Amino acid sequence: MRLVGPSGEQVGIVPLAKALELAQEYDLDLVEVAANARPPVCKLMDYGKFKYESAMKAREARKNQAHTVIKEMKLRPKIDPHDYDTKKGHVVRFLKQGDKVKITIMFRGREQSRPELGFRLLQRLAEDVQDLGFIESNPKQDGRNMIMVLGPHKKKTEAMAEAREAQAARKAERQGQPAHADEAVHADEPADEAAEA
Fold first, then answer.
1. DSSP, residue by residue, 57-107
2. Contact residues for 130 (Cβ-Cβ < 8 A; gap 6+)
3. What is residue 178's predicted lDDT score, i.e. its pLDDT?
4. Locate the Translation initiation factor 3 C-terminal domain: which residues (predicted)?
5. Which residue in 25, 28, 44, 173 is deepest, having the highest Cβ count within 10 Å?
6. Model pLDDT for residues 64-93, shown as the tens digit of each residue
């Protein structure tokens, strides 16, 4: 077999007995890394440490992985202006977080005969958030509902990175200032007394 040493150096082609002897000498495991190669390749390593490091790398990769989420917002054609602003605020927040937003207009009764109301409402919402997102799928009627999907301009990973930076900045800002304003006043008093003396 072809043997690779603990620090990645090539030991050369050695018999199995010699490789096992070297493994015992270094107090390491003999691990086959390429079984299909001719001759097979084995490496001297601490297998437990190797598995642990692999698991940590996989966990870190999952942590940085972005999951695309589709958030849903439901509206009615005759929505109150204040309610519209609230719903628009939610859509803005979702788009800033890098999520797609599915907007559904629900029609009831005679409202179904006026689909243009829903269409105009969806167009208005798309114009209000055009700096954060774009229309990924145009409004289309689906039974009693009209559906439109908005996609964010920013990728989820970019949004997550910005959120982490903002959180770190807030944390640093909090640690740099005293917890209460009273503490800042009391911290100045001894210096004033020393100046008077």
1. HHHHHHHHPPPP-EEEEEE-TT--HHHHHHHHHHHHHHHHTT-EEEEEEEP
2. none
3. 52
4. 69-152
5. 44
6. 666 677 889 999 998 999 999 999 999 999
